[in-house]
């Protein structure tokens, strides 16, 4: 028996090493772990996260046609450029996929992110001209549009019903073989920056898959985490949360730390690890390498701006980048609370006290705060509206940042879901989308009356939006932004009753009440690092409401104890507006007993405002330096920052239930420790499991 145990241990220890630290546990899965994993799959089934065989085969057929289409086009271009027939016959060309489809975690109806790779004699202008025209003549291709001036230029279309975002890269090669591997760094030599950006999505995706111990366990875990993040309202790179590639890297790191675990265990360990992570220490899947190609990489020793990133998750392919540069103080706080809540729920699930469905219950966003800002973007035609809201949404994080810097605001929480404007709050012919930002105001000690002026915060945001719209010649007559302050009890003026009342609803009910506009919008300022778009329509915003986690309920408790208003008036909502003229004084009706929210003016509107005036926006004097504004984090010691998984502060995590897992499928739930000493020992054991991970991390060096 001893020999058998010794052999098993030896076999485990000789297993391939993944990641920049050794694994936390090499324990193989137990029967109960497989049981919980099956129950996890069953719980995800109603949300449409698994594609059936027919749709999968349809995607493969479409990609095959597109690949042949690309080869035909490249051969035609080669002939036009007078290449010899012998060269034309083997010039090649290939379609690569990346993002959720390449990772194997796409949902029903999701789009495909793809890359067209061409040899050196095919120019980018050929792709956006002759290839675009060739696509236009194809009867199976609909909704064709090119976005040539985007950060990552792209052609978007539907091919036989499947949405495809197609990027382009020309390599410094005379031909493109079918067995081409994009992972090698030498492939980046002599390429322009747009080609490098286009290649980045494929290279990162391939590297993630290479760095995980078990691809199937990784995929199932990632499906669960992506569903959880969408359901909890924290899936959006554009709005300052995390996007698809960032969630994939966090799951991949968890898989490295528990290489033999199955999905149910990995989901629980995901929350365990990242509820205790001490940000801004970075998450790394591999030790970064320098390829001597002189491309900019994430390195806080060299780049001062990298030291200010709040939640760095570093892509594993050269040139290494931080995929979470949009994260703000508020969004990091919200995600940290969600990690802790996820840990408490999965503790309950693995103790037999709850079902997996509880993990996917949505939060009570519209009951969580006492104050909200309603941001409405409107246009006079549907086409203008889709274009306009794409730009406005890409800049909402600017508004969140402005609000965070206001001395009276503790937290600004944007809901990633947009909602159509109600008939009562818009002109009959306007197309309107609304976003809601929950606000927590700072408690004012010994203050009888405090006047909070948000004019500057809104002005700065709208200046940014209109300036960029002007620069890219997007502005059309009738494009408007309107910001309104409302209290919780006024939300029924903007939203259907079922969204603002605590009431159990079915999946079908909530789908009907959520925004039906699923048209994909073009991000005008984000790279394809986040290859999984935020507009994934495969996951419904539904299911019975859940009891709030303690961090979430603390929010409401804080409001109850330090409300900035002494009474809950349900008066008219206050418009937060900024005109293209000197800021006006506060509206008298905005004054309330206690603390008042002072706002100024009317709706910002493009009609009648000369575009030239937008180039020189009037910016009021900023408020005094906020007392709640966090100082920029001082750069930690280089060896600690760049070693990847550095020791998190276990003391900062909330009190959790002990993780006594039930080893019997049909038996009674595992007993909880019944003495304070046992509870404390169980908590210490859980903390030690994660902190043990980081013992050697501080000794590692970046790039060594």
TrEMBL record:
Domain Poly(A) polymerase RNA-binding residues, every copy: 365-430
GO molecular function: ATP binding; metal ion binding; poly(A) RNA polymerase activity; RNA binding
InterPro entries tied to this protein: NT_sf, NuclTrfase_I-like_C, PolA_pol_cen_dom, PolA_pol_NTPase, PolA_pol_RNA-bd_dom
Cofactor(s) listed in the protein's UniProt record: Mn(2+); Mg(2+)
GO cellular-component term (any): nucleus
Organism superkingdom: Eukaryota
Compositional bias per record (Polar residues), positions renumbered to this chain: 511-521
Subcellular location: Nucleus
Gene Ontology BP terms: mRNA processing; RNA 3'-end processing
Residue ranges constituting the Poly(A) polymerase central domain according to the UniProt record: 217-361
Poly(A) polymerase nucleotidyltransferase domain span: 19-212
Region Disordered, residue ranges: 506-559, 612-704
Main localization category: nucleus
Catalytic activity: RNA(n) + ATP = RNA(n)-3'-adenine ribonucleotide + diphosphate
Composition-biased stretches (Low complexity): 626-641
Annotated EC: 2.7.7.19
Positions with biased composition (Basic and acidic residues): 527-536, 675-689
Alphabetized UniProt keyword annotations: ATP-binding, Magnesium, Manganese, Metal-binding, mRNA processing, Nucleotide-binding, Nucleus, RNA-binding, Transferase
Enzyme class, first EC level, given as a word: transferase
Cross-referenced Pfam families: PAP_central, PAP_NTPase, PAP_RNA-bind
Family: Belongs to the poly(A) polymerase family.
Name the record gives this protein: polynucleotide adenylyltransferase
Organism of this sequence: Takifugu rubripes
């Amino acid at each position: 028996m001893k020999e058998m145990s010794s052999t098993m241990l030896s076999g485990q220890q000789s297993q391939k090493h993944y990641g920049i630290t050794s694994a936390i546990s090499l324990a193989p899965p137990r029967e109960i772990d497989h049981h919980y994993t099956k129950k996890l799959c069953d719980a995800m089934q109603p949300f449409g996260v698994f594609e059936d065989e027919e749709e999968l085969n349809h995607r493969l057929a479409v990609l095959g046609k597109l690949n042949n289409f690309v080869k035909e086009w490249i051969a035609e271009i080669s002939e036009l450029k007078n290449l010899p027939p012998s060269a034309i016959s083997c010039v090649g060309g290939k379609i690569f996929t990346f993002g959720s489809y390449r990772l194997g975690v796409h949902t029903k109806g999701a789009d495909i992110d793809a890359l067209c790779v061409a040899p050196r004699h095919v120019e980018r202008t050929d792709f956006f001209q002759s290839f675009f025209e060739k696509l236009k003549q194809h009867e199976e291709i609909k909704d064709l549009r090119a976005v040539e001036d985007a950060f990552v230029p792209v052609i978007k279309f539907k091919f036989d019903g499947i949405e495809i975002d197609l990027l382009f890269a020309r390599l410094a090669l005379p031909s493109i073989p079918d067995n081409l591997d994009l992972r090698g760094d030498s492939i980046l030599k002599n390429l322009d920056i747009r080609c490098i950006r286009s290649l980045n999505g494929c290279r990162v995706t391939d590297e993630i898959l290479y760095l995980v111990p078990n691809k199937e366990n990784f995929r199932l875990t990632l499906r669960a985490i992506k569903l959880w993040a969408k359901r909890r309202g924290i899936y959006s790179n554009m709005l300052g949360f995390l996007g698809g590639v960032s969630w994939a890297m966090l799951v991949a790191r968890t898989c490295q730390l528990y290489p033999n675990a199955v999905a149910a265990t990995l989901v629980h360990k995901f929350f365990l690890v990242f509820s205790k992570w001490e940000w801004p220490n970075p998450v790394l899947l591999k030790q970064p390498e320098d390829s001597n190609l002189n491309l900019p990489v994430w390195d806080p020793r060299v780049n001062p701006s990298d030291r200010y990133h709040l939640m760095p998750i570093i892509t594993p392919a050269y040139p290494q980048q931080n995929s979470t540069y949009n994260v703000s103080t508020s969004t990091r706080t919200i995600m940290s609370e969600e990690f802790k809540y996820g840990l408490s729920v999965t503790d309950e699930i693995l103790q037999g006290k709850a079902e997996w469905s509880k993990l996917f219950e949505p939060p009570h966003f519209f009951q969580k705060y006492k104050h909200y800002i309603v941001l409405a973007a409107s246009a006079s035609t549907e086409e203008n509206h889709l274009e306009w809201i794409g730009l406005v949404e890409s800049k909402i994080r600017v508004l969140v940042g402005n609000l965070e810097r206001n001395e009276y605001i503790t937290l600004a929480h944007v809901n990633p879901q947009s909602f159509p404007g109600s008939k009562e709050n818009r002109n009959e012919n306007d197309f309107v989308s609304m976003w809601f930002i929950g606000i927590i105001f700072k408690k004012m000690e010994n203050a009888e009356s405090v006047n909070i002026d948000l004019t500057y915060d809104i002005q700065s945001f709208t200046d940014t939006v209109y300036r960029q719209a002007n620069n890219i010649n997007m502005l059309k007559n009738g494009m408007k932004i309107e910001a309104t302050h409302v209290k919780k009890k006024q939300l029924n003026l903007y939203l259907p009753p079922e969204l603002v009342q605590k009431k159990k609803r079915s999946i079908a009910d909530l789908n009907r009440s959520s925004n039906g506009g699923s048209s994909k919008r073009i991000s005008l300022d984000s790279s394809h690092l986040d290859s999984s778009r935020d507009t994934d329509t495969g996951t419904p915003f539904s299911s019975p409401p859940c009891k709030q986690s303690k961090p979430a309920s603390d929010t409401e408790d804080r409001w109850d104890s330090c409300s900035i208003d002494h009474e809950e008036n349900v008066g008219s909502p206050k418009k937060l507006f900024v005109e293209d003229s000197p800021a006006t004084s506060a509206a008298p009706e905005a004054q309330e007993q206690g603390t008042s929210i002072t706002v100024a003016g009317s709706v910002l509107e493009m009609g009648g405002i000369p575009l030239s005036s937008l180039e020189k926006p009037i910016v009021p004097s900023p408020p005094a330096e906020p007392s709640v504004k966090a100082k920029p984090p001082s750069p930690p010691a280089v060896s600690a920052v760049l070693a990847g998984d550095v020791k998190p502060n276990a003391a900062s995590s909330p009190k959790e239930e002990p993780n006594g897992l039930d080893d019997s499928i049909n038996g009674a739930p595992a007993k909880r420790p019944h003495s304070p000493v046992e509870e404390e020992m169980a908590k210490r054991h859980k903390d030690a499991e994660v902190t043990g991970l980081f013992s050697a991390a501080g000794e590692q060096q970046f790039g060594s």
